[in-house]
Amino acid sequence: MSKNILIVDDNHEITKILSDYILHEGYTPIIASDGEIALRLFAENEIDLILLDIMLPKLDGFEVCRTIRKESSVPIIMVTAKGDDFEKILGLDIGADDYIVKPFSPAEVMARVRAILRRVDKDEGPKRLEIDNLVLEVDQNRAFLNGKKIDLTLKEADLLYLLASNPSRVFTRDMLLDQLWGYDYYGDARTVDSHIKRLRAKLDGEHPGWDITTVRGRGYQFEIFV
User: Fold this and answer.
1) Cβ-contact 98, 77 below 8 angstroms
2) What's the whole-model pTM score?
3) Where in the sequence is the domain holding 85, given as residue range(s)?
């Protein structure tokens, strides 16, 4: 079945170019020209990935992302203005999986789309991990802490699995970018920091047996306390 990709942008030229590339890849483009239409189309269709511009009429991309994240872990790639670090960081902090900076190459956008959809489609059997009071079900993009369900985004689930399945190993930001976003990723270390920040916030609670710790000057590790 063809994947449905929701393109949210009020620039007709951009949506036309992206639609052509998406069709060429064998996916189905669904276009929304403002934030309200985007939420309606998301509710009416089975969406597999969202390309979400920030500057939109009616509801901006941040509000659309926040609303969708309340009910879904669908992959979201946000489109930000060139050099606007605030937009990049805020987008990642509220749940985006990735970001693209304008002006962008459509080929680069499609490379990101393919990489994320490959991860979604990859069938390696159930990936489940139990450590102390934490249960992680990667394929379902969710965790359970003390029995309480916690919904995760695609990248949050992958990040937690990588760290937790390698306890005490220190991962630099570059290592995490390479393994989770790909060697040709154009982002920077703040992408990792934002995802770690969100993970810590979601996993906030009683877990005296483990923690995601910062190793100053090096990176992050999943530390188990004996």
Assistant:
1) yes
2) 0.70
3) 4-121
